[in-house]
Amino acid sequence: MNRKTIFSLMLAASLAGYAQQGGISQKMLEQIASAYEGTPTDRALVNAIAANDVRTLALNQENLRGGLDTHFSHRVNSRGITDQESSGRCWLFTGFNVLRAKAMARHGWPSCEFSQGYSFFWDQLEKSNLFLQGIIDTRERPLTDQMVEWLLKHPLSDGGTYTGVADLVAKYGIVPAEVMPETFNTNNTSRITSIIKQKLREFALQLRDAKGGKKELETLKTEMLGTIYRMLVLSMGEPVKQFTWAPKDADGKPLSAPKTYTPQSFYKEWIGEDLNANYVMLMNDPSRDYWKVYEIDFDRHVYDGHNWLYVNLPIEEIKQMALASIKDSTMMYFSCDVAKQLNSTRGLLDMDNYDYESLLGITLGMDKKQRIQTFDSGSSHAMTLMAVDVAEDGTFKKWMVENSWGASSGYRGHLIMTDEWFNEYMFRLVVNKKYVPANVLDVLKQKPIRLPAWDPMFAEEE
Questions:
Q1: Phi, psi at residue 434, to the nearest 5°?
Q2: Which of 301, 306, 381, 414 is catalytic?
Q3: Helix (H) or strand (E) holding 104
Q4: Is 71 part of the annotated catalytic residue set?
Q5: N or C terminus of the chain: which is more exposed, having fewer CB within 10 Å?
Q6: CA nearest 334: which of 155, 104, 76, 130?
Q7: What does the alpha-carbon distance between residue 237 and residue 225 come to, in Å, rounded to a whole number?
């Protein structure tokens, strides 16, 4: 009796105890295993796929022909690519990339970058307060309550959304990058964030067990936030309260006399825009009704700030607003499911980049709605939409974003996406109201449909 026969008998004996309905019986296993026929082609595929990255083998060589088309009929000029390094702060870099592009265009600066480290410090403190206050608000509920469970699973993250940018700069202002430079822990957030998360969960149990009323809980929460503040200062530095600064030309010479600013006065003088009031957040989510307003509970960075509130629209409506903004040299906050069909070497997002179906002999047939409903796809990364290529007949051909993965990534720090890819994996866009038609603005008058924090669309951009 050979080894294969012995193994089959042993497996059959083992499976005999698992004949319960719903399990894999011996008969079912034989049927399942017959899907692999062991033909010479099958064996060749095993040899290739088992020893290599499936992404490498599925790379569509035909799609590489002709080179990368980098022509765009409409494009906003950008200067300098930022790098979020090993952090999930794409939302913050994207928001600041939009702001710095405006500042450079408005004031004639040759370059500009705002301090992500400064705003991230306040983001982590505000999110800690959001969590602790959420624990106080739900302290009478059992630990098995869905909202309590969700809070304890998500005490803190380095990801976020546009509303975080808007609320943080409104409350804490903004500072130039050189005033509060990045630290190791702002560029590499996972370790310190995990430690703070552990401490916040410990605090949560203490708050749930604490005696006393609202005043006593507020005092205890404030003491806890003092601990978090100290941890943030030790790892990121203390946030600047006042500084002296002047804009400079390309040679580094001041363009005006230096002035003393607070972060709030600096924002007011050089940006001076209400990011909540002047912008509309749009979504393309075919799993829900279009022409409705949705709000996601607890999807905010600041407890007394704004939840993510958006108008859900057909993709073609969103494209027209994006086009109007780009034509007027205005970049936009944009987010998508960036990992899907990304050729990071070329900087191309294309539905034909990888042919997994031919390689594995399968079909991948879900549409956008089905991918959302099954958590297979969602908004995962924020970037700055800054170019579109429109054919003479008005059809959209491709789009381009300024990314925050460094100048050496993708196409000179950018990603180019085909219009077909844009249709399938674009989710969120933030547009100035002046580019939004009246019929879309009218939708905002509706009472928002409130969705729970664990909704698929809650996912924060990283």
A1: -70, -15
A2: 381
A3: helix 90-107
A4: no
A5: N
A6: 76
A7: 16
Choice among 46-50, 242-246, 337-341 with the minimum mean pLDDT: 46-50
Category of 229 on φ-ψ map: left (φ > 0), alpha (ψ -120 to 50) or beta: alpha
pLDDT reported for residue 80: 86
Closest to 149 in 3D by CA, of 134, 164, 129, 133: 134
What are the start-end ranges of the H helices in 17-89? 26-33, 40-50, 54-58
The secondary structure element, H or E, covering residue 439 is helix 438-443
pTM: 0.91
Phi, psi of 259 (to 5 degrees): -130, 155
Cβ-count burial 28-51 (b if 16+ within 10 Å, e if not): eeeeeeeeeeeeeeeeebeeeeee
CATH of domain 66-76+274-458: 3.90.70.10
Confirm whether 381 is a catalytic residue: yes
| DSSP 8-state symbol, 62 | G
Asked if the model's pLDDT at residue 330 lies above 70, the reply is yes
pLDDT tens by residue, 81-128: 999 999 999 999 999 999 999 999 999 899 899 999 999 999 999 999
Tokens of 174: 């903004």
Domain 90-105+113-270: which topology?
Cathepsin B; Chain A (3.90.70)
User: Could you tell me what percentage of the chain is helix, strand and coil, using 3-state DSSP and rounding each to the nearest 5?
Assistant: 45, 15, 40
The H or E element containing residue 223 is helix 214-236
**Active-site choice (90, 112, 306, 336):** 90
Catalytic residue among 343, 403, 414, 432: 403
Cβ-Cβ contacts under 8 Å for 422 (sequence gap 6 or more): 315, 319, 336, 396, 398, 399
Burial, 372: exposed, middle or buried (Cβ in 10 Å; 0-12, 13-18, 19+)?
buried
How do beta strands 279-283 and 309-312 pair? Answer: parallel
CATH 3.90.70.10 occupies which residues in the chain? 66-76+274-458, 90-105+113-270
Question: What is the dihedral angle through the alpha carbons of 445, 451, 453, 458, rounded to the nearest 10 degrees?
Answer: -70
Active site residue 112: no
Pair of tokens at residue 168: 């943080």
Strand bridging mode 396-402 / 243-245: unpaired
